[in-house]
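Entry:
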Amino acid sequence: MNKINTKILTLFKAYTAKEINEKQFVELQKWINQSTENKQLFSKYLLYYKRSRRVTFYDSLNKELAWSKVISQLSPPLLQPVKKQGVTKKTYWKYAIAASVITIISLSIFLNIKSINSTPVIVNNKIESRSNKATLTLEDGSEITLEKGKTSIIKNATSNGKEIIYQPIANKQISYNYLTIPRGGEYKIILPDSTIVWLNSESQLKYPINFTEGKPRQVELVYGEAYFDVSPSTAHNGSKFKVYNNGQEVEVLGTEFNIKTYKDETNIYTTLVEGKVSIKTDKQNRLLEPGEQSNLDIISNHISISKVNIRQETSWKDGLYIFKGKSLKEIMITLSRWYNIEVIFEEKSLEDARFTGALNKNQNIVDMLNDIKNFGAINNFEINNKTITLK
């Protein structure tokens, strides 16, 4: 930032405060377009600004977030069953916000949850927790395995085993790469325009290895879940950023958002963290505001929009799963992708038990299942290789 003079910094501040006039805006654009270094400095400044705003934003959120913060600091984080008979939601949150490990234990007694003393059956446990791994498919179809501890250099990209970073190149011919994340993996990619994408387990992104200046920047989330921090269009001559996936087009100007579109689900969820995006299909065009989530029903091709807890929807990229009132079946679907496991419900009624709480993605699966078992939602569990049976 020391390469920016006072005058330019004043323009930066006016831009982010939305107080910039037309003359200043033209001057700022002219400076940005002078060099690649200026574009990168402007992008970095916006990134710092957004991060500082996010801290303030989170601090101003309601009691639900306060609760999320409390439980996320527990070691290990815990799940709790949702309200039982005779306990109102209001009362439950009153207890939850003030939770500590001791009060959580007390609450479980208050809720009259039975204690189960049966011992889990664990046979040849091969379940591992998170790791950075991905498969990069180049334009000629060849594949490169990216994984923790391994450095790879490919054309205009470098991977350190945790992320792959592309550098812009002067080439008008467009060619595409695919980054595929297996179950049990995650990876980060920085595209040639400095847009950052976090990819969750069982996801695939198709993208060009270089963007053409002045033309729309287009990528495709083929399937899975991804969090986008888009480099602003002002740093790319107004070039918009578009994400395609399964009949949906998301058009942005410079913002942060999350898209979830798994192959075994019939809904596409887009959650806007900051900025503004439009959600398009061949029948509808809807705008999203920060804190809103669109739900595209693929079967009916209908888009609905609702308010959501941003932290709850995007915490996966920060190493945490936060659930509020989710069924055990929904929770186990998420965990099956993360731990690369198969889950069997021996008793079907268990699928509907609901929980609120947070789980650390680094937590051992046995400890996690013991938490659920200790709250009486299941009688016992069995692990055989990579299959978990809930009883």
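Residues 54-64, 69-77, 84-116 have pLDDT under 50 and may be disordered.
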